[in-house]
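Hi, here's the filled form for the chain we discussed.

Project: internal
Contact: R.S.
Residues: 47
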Amino acid sequence: SDKVEAFLDVVRPYGIDEMVRTGKVALHRYLAARINGGESVASTPAK
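And the returned structure, exactly as it came back:
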């Protein structure tokens, strides 16, 4: 669908390991830290 293609265009720069049409979106912790202002992984609290 067009919405799926638009979403892929947004997340493609971050790398895609796997894609399914249902489920949750996840990023590696180190990548999420870089996106959120360059914090180191060690300073990112576990959730």
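Let me know if anything looks off before we file it.
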